[in-house]
Design a protein that fits this description.
- It is built from 4 helices and 7 strands.
- The radius of gyration is 15 Å and the shape is globular.
Length: 146
């Protein structure tokens, strides 16, 4: 069992027709993210995590981890030097954080599903709450699969 929970703190969903890639990566749909498994939790309650960019990056990490059944990937938060590490050993996955002593253990399959669900929920929220078609810079991040 593994799940990703998030809370939107700041949203800017109006007047985004000219939104830039940089704005999406640093200042669009900010909030908190937490990872939960049966044995641990890792909370990032900084209120400034760009949720769509984070979900998009997690999908890229899943894709990279799929290539080999033994692999390691890292995510570095853009607003500080904190990191998340993802270590895959066959079907098992460990997640560690530079800002937490917790080690999350889950299956790669559960991680992949949770990441897909997280990205899909964020994307649906954005599509539901913006006016009209998403601008081209935003469409890349809203894609279901990379």
């Amino acid at each position: 069992m593994f799940r990703i929970e998030y809370k939107i703190i700041t949203e800017r969903l109006q007047e985004i027709e000219y939104i830039s890639d940089e704005e999406i990566r640093y200042d669009f749909l900010l909030g908190n993210v937490s990872f939960f498994s049966f044995n641990a939790e890792i909370k990032s309650e900084w209120e400034w995590i760009p949720l769509l960019d984070f979900a998009y990056c997690l999908q890229m990490i899943v894709g990279d981890l799929k290539i080999n059944d033994t692999a390691k990937e890292y995510f570095e938060f853009t607003e500080n030097a904190e990191t998340l590490g993802f270590l895959r050993q066959k079907e098992q996955l460990k997640i560690v954080a530079s800002f937490s002593p917790a080690v999350i253990e889950t299956t790669f399959t559960d991680f992949e599903k949770a990441v897909d669900d997280f990205h899909l929920n964020i994307s649906k929220y954005i599509r539901k709450n913006i006016l009209g078609e998403p601008p081209s810079a935003l469409q890349k991040y809203l894609s279901i699969k990379l």
